[in-house]
Amino acid sequence: MLTxxxxxxxxxxxxxxxxxxxxxxxxxxxxxxxxxxxxxxxxGYLTVIMMNRLGVSFFWCLPAAFxxxxxLGVTLERILYRRLYDKTHLDQVLxxxxxxxxxxxxxxxxxxxxxxxxxxxPALSGRIEILGASIGVYRLFVIAICGLLTxxxxxxxxxxxxxxxxxxxxxxxxxxxxxxxxxxxxxxxTFAFGSGLAGLGGALGAPILSMDPxxxxxxxxxxxxxxxxxxxxxxxxxxxxxxxxxxxxxAGKYFIPAIGGFIIYTIMVAVLIFRPQGLFTRSAKR
Amino acid sequence: MIFRSILAWALGLxxxxxxxxxxxxxxxxxxxxxxxxxxxxxxSGRQKVAGARLYMAEKGNMVAGKRIELxxxxxxxxxxxxxxxxxxxxxxxxxxxxxxxxxxxxxLAVAPVITQAKTPAIxxxxxxxxxxxxxxxxxxxxxxxxxxxxxxxxxxxKEGAKTAVSLVSDYGPGIDAQDAFKMRFEERGGKVIDQLKxxxxxxxxxxxxxxxxxLKPDVLFLFVPAPTAGALMRQVIDRGxxxxxIRVVGTxxxxxxxxxxxxxxxxxxxxxxxxxxxxxxxxxxxxxVAEFKKANPGMRPNFIGVSGYDGMxxxxxxxxxxxxxxxxxxxxxxxxxLTWESPRxxxxxxxxxxxxxxxxxxRKVEKKDGELYNVxxxxxxxxxxxxxx
Lengths: 286, 389
Hints:
Chain A has a single domain, classed as ABC transporter involved in vitamin B12 uptake, BtuC, CATH 1.10.3470. In chain A, about 70% of the residues lie in helices and about 5% in strands. Chain A contains eleven helices and two strands. In chain A, helix 6 (about 160-170) packs across helix 8 (about 185-210). The longest helix of chain A has 27 residues, at about 1-30. By secondary structure, chain B is α/β, with parallel strands linked by helices. Chain B folds into two domains: about 15-145 and about 285-355, Rossmann fold, CATH 3.40.50; about 145-275 and about 360-385, Response regulator (Rossmann fold), CATH 3.40.50.2300. Chain B is built from twelve helices and 15 strands. Chain B has helices at about 1-25, 40-60, 80-90, 105-115, 145-160, 170-185, 205-215, 225-240, 260-265, 285-295, 305-320, 330-335; strands at about 30-35, 60-65, 65-75, 95-100, 120-125, 140, 165-170, 190-200, 220-225, 245-250, 270-275, 340, 345-350, 355-370, 370-385. In chain B, strands 7, 8, 9, 10, 11, 12, 13, 14 and 15 form a nine-stranded mixed sheet that branches. A six-stranded mixed sheet of chain B has the order 2-3-1-4-5-6, sandwiched between helices. In chain B, helix 6 links the parallel strand 7 (about 165-170) and strand 8 (about 190-200). Chain B starts with a helix and ends in a 6-residue tail after the last strand.
């Protein structure tokens, strides 16, 4: 029982790290970036290449995946995304969907379409017993990293000067610019950070979810569910939404395998009927 | 409008006739190989094409005075594309036979086409039992899942296992596998406590594996399609099932030769049943593996590669028997009852069901020369599909 809960939390945490970047761009920058999963895939595949072809330790792959995806993110942001900030949401959706297909085709071309497998270092594989529940070491590691990230993110956005500048730029870009805030720079940095988190999520997820070129499409649905249940005005909203989904998904498949796969969709529908603005949103701002 | 299309059709026919005549004079017989060369199943297509090409390179392309030409099409793993290619190959290229079909739905999609056109189709992968019943022109050289499953069910029962849980992917072949396992295991006095089905597109096996672990069976039987096997085996090991005194067994799909080395040393000792292993000891296989590796650097033949090779053999032999006659009915008739020594061992095309009868081996993953192999240690001779009546 505890094991199931634990697995669910780990899965949810992973979903959260994968989705939080999208939450940042969508909620804070008001930009619909469906291609978010492509950055996660970039991080995942970088891990695969570094570990399997170059023999780099998994622990180095994590920061590398973060940095590489962040650089990729900021490059694309400078070249492509910034032109779409003031376009309609439909334009943004079409553009980012196109980007997904391009990323899938590119990965297929260079890496092949088969699933890539990442073998964990011995320090992270195996299981330990805690309170009578048998727990995978890797999942514990995922929870620890994601937990730290969540706390860090929340602090940065709520407490730091950068956080308040970011919120100001989002609320009213023109006034913020008038106050001497470098709005463009802040957006670029935020976008890079969001993409970096996706890359880190992809790297962390690679051993559990396994990578193939359809990754961005396959997980887009999960990201969107997390965002729609959690709302985008806070970091904590999507966090709890992701945990809820992870636990419900794992527990559902364990206890009622016959309908297990549908449970997360049922939850989403229920939440959207009763709280269309999202479970954890205090007020619908936009 | 209608007049115009009739005119176009008549013109096409008139244009086609003089073209067809010199083709017949050259005595070319075409075989359409529909493989999945892109998408998640791409690895299967590469193996199949490599196997078929190797056979033609070894035996030459002249059979019964005719030149054999292989036309390769990529169906991307999508059933309507398979069907479209089948129609085009039959109508435009006038192939004598089709071959390939990496997944069950792809094979089923062409059943009406080949029945209508009376064109034989040699199945080189797809493993659901019913396929060959859907058209009298299907001939299978690969395997059926029940055929692969029954021997391992027998083996674990013989080893003294009393209880079992099965975990399969929730689609045709998976259901076939779990039913065949339950049938034979319970016939031998065992009890299947639970039959778990994971969605086909399911990356997270954790809840299913945890359930299997908590049920504490003697045996956990696994089947997932080969490309998913790596991810599943990772999670099986991570969850410590093998150390919890649960014997994990499966069909050879989970320790596919193509992927085995990528899964890693954790699967050492895993027991599976299947009809082909690259480590099969016969002289025919050693030659096959060596030639295959020489022609395709960096690849090792797996069960799909050998089926591609044997599929071409079946066609060559049938054409020899009909003396170059390419009528579909005669070719199918000629393939029925064919017996030969394949790299996998002796195999026969069952004259009643047009399905393959072959030896199924019980194998264990071992390390040889720094690579992982499925080493065969037991065999059930000449297994027929247990579901066909």
